[in-house]
Amino acid sequence: METDGSISADEASQALASARSARARATWGGYPAWYWFATGAVLATSPVAVLLPDGWYLALLAVAVVSMAYVARAAGRARGICEGWTRQGMSRREALVLYGPTIVVILANGVASRYAGWLPWLPIVAAILVFVLFAGAGLTLTARVARR
Amino acid sequence: MNSPPDTEQTTADEDGFDHLIHAPARLRICAALEPVWEIEFGSLLTMLDISKSALSKHISTLADAGYVTQRRAVRDTRQRVWLRLTDAGRSAYRGHVDALQRIVGGA
């Protein structure tokens, strides 16, 4: 087995696994459930916004952005972790799992509402889907780290 | 094997392997601090599941090396200590992880 001085490949592999586990705990651990529900609810307003009169969409977007920042700050205080604005510990795969389905539903709702005519139930179904998919993914990722 | 620069002490080899960071608890501390801005001492304690005295000792070692900074802040009438990886610490940790990956890759 190749070594680097006193470190074997097995030891290096174990050290990397330990570092990955600690990083995952810092990234996903300790999130209160209300964070995922609250953020999911805010994101769910996006599909419903098409039901609003013109001009109200931007106002709703502004409220949504401020609400998400407030919720994220409150969750950070509860976790005892400040993530900052740019540093994100989540991997691309985790980001895809968390945001991917939500973005697909929001975009699909946007396309459908533009080309499929007036279907009042569509934004409501999309909003429910966005909430369930985002909150479900977030809770699952947090629970997975807690089980490690 | 070690070749410290003229201006500052280093605990890393030329290949980035850092003996100070490699201690299991310190590696986990750096790994937890690396992706975030700062972590409160109590949260890190829970996260890493080690004793308070051991965490304090490792933080002091990392702080003495210039890898971690500590900030005290009062919240809910209690004083809390927030820990942050410095730029030097972040760079040393990433170099150390790269060195570990090379060792694993070369096996």
Overview of the molecule:
The complex is a heterodimer of chains A (148) and B (107). Chain A has 148 residues and is mostly helical. Chain A contains five helices and three strands; from the N terminus they run E-E-H-H-H-E-H-H. In chain A, strands 1-2 form a two-stranded antiparallel sheet. Chain B is an alpha+beta fold and 107 residues long. Chain B is built from five helices and three strands. Chain B has helices spanning 19-22, 24-33, 41-48, 52-64, 87-105, and strands at residues 38-40, 68-75, 78-85. Chain B is elongated, with a radius of gyration of 15 Å. The two termini of chain B are 21 Å apart. Mean pLDDT of chain B is 87; it is low at 1-8. Strand 3 of chain A pairs antiparallel with strand 1 of chain B, so a sheet runs across the interface.
Main features:
heterodimer, A: 148 residues, mainly alpha, two-stranded antiparallel ribbon, 5 helices, elongated, B: 107 residues, alpha+beta, 3-stranded antiparallel β-sheet, 50% helix, disordered N terminus
Largest sheet of chain B: 3 strands, antiparallel
SSE order of chain B? HHEHHEEH
Largest interface: A-B, 34 and 38 residues
Q: Could you say which structural class the secondary elements and strand pairing of chain A correspond to?
A: mainly alpha
Q: What multimeric state do the chains show? A: heterodimer
**Number of helical stretches of at least 4 residues of chain B:** 5
The low-confidence parts of chain B are 1-8
The topology string of helices and strands of chain A comes to: EEHHHEHH
Bin the helical content of chain B. 40-55%
Helix count of chain A equals: 5
Morphology call of chain B: elongated
Q: Report the radius of gyration of chain B as a whole number of Å.
A: 15 Å
Q: In which order are the strands of the major sheet of chain A placed?
A: 1-2
Class from helix and strand fractions of chain B: alpha+beta
DSSP helix fraction of chain A: over 70%
Taken as a percent bin, the fraction of beta residues of chain A is under 5%
**DSSP, total strands of chain A:** 3
Distance between the termini of chain A: 29 Å
- Averaged pLDDT of chain B, please? 87
